[in-house]
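User: Need the bound-state model for adenosine monophosphate:
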Amino acid sequence: MTSFDELGLIAPIMRVLEAESYVTPTPIQSRAIPRLLAGRDLLGIAQTGTGKTAAFGLPLLQKLRTDMRTVKARATRALILAPTRELALQIDTSLRSYGRGLKLRHCVIFGGVNQNRQVQELAKGVDILVATPGRLLDLISQRHLRLDEVEIFVVDEADRMLDMGFIRDVRRIVALLPKERQSMLFSATMPDDIVKLVGDMLKQPERIEIAPQSRPAERIEQRVLFTEGRQKRGILISLLRNPEVKRAIVFTKTKYGANKVAETLEKAGLCAEAIHGNKSQNARQRALARFRSGEAPILVATDIAARGIDIDEITHVINFELPNEAESYVHRIGRTARAGASGIAISLVDDSERGLLRQVERITKQRIPVVPAPEGVAEKMPEPRRERSHARPPQTAAERPSQSPAERGPRREGRRRPRRKSRTGHPHGKAPVMGTSR
Ligand code: AMP
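Assistant: Bound-state model below.
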């Protein structure tokens, strides 16, 4: 294991690390920092939480500091692009903190607010500019900003840029940069468009891939609920009506799916917000604020849109659909059980998703207990139409002949068959699937 002493960082930065109580570099830091200090380009395949801000931020600060020079009016020496206002602010705050005492000029710009203060800050030139792509291009077209002095260029969360429709803006920005520069790109996933951007933007980059965490926190109680695809919505409503759900994130695979699910929940009288890349920055901000304040206790989100959301007291994560990449499962359910709390993660799995479930169980090296649908749900939903009639179609997949490891797994959470008719009180009030099993 390396220590920060071995990475070639200058004394003022080492003092900051000490003050921040950063004792050991994270894997991406120990690998990226020496290479970036040596002037290499970098492709970092890593998610938030890996320490990537310091990984690119510390060498960036050091390079600007050791080669101090006056910046021209309206110019910047380092440019960091981030997809959202929240991330831009977060990066700016971290860089100001890591660079305290270095006497570098920082500025952060993003849309949705009046531009006057940003224009003023840029007027004399800055050392480090963190920006969202739209406002950046806006200020360039108004001649408040020029990019011909950029020495270091960073694109953070490139896949999210793509998801939010910013990739063309990023390309336009790249075209305005000097050819001689150091560039870095970070992305958690590598869709084709990002691979292409990397090819156009980076020169023989050092590639560092940090595998996402593969073991979920032990405090998260995981469950699988086998169901027909068409019953998922009814089951979801029933699960979310449980009073134990104080704050929940529901994950869908697609943006379209997120909207649909949020609409269904609203119709059922549940207060839900959807966030995904097709929504405007302001709409996303509003949705998040309502979720954070508890006004809308349910957030329906796609993987990429939910990245970076750090909200405590999320009691439940529900996978309306399993993600295509098993690693995303770990990431999703890690939204609950934060700050020492415990949490419950339930995945609704239909026949087409059994393979995905097997992958999740393989990478997490655990079997996820199977639970039945909340009481009353199966009978309330229309019977699935079948090609051949069965004497009695199974009510839940937990009752079907077992195939997947999950189904063969322990069923200590109850193989109780859902009652055929619930006549007593609220049918979903005490569904065992939502509470803790103890
Ligand atoms: P990031 O992935 O850059 O968003 O960083 C995730 C969190 O880890 C931030 O709260 C950082 O302050 C923290 N962090 C980054 N590097 C280290 C380190 N070497 N030791 C301890 N904490 C760190």
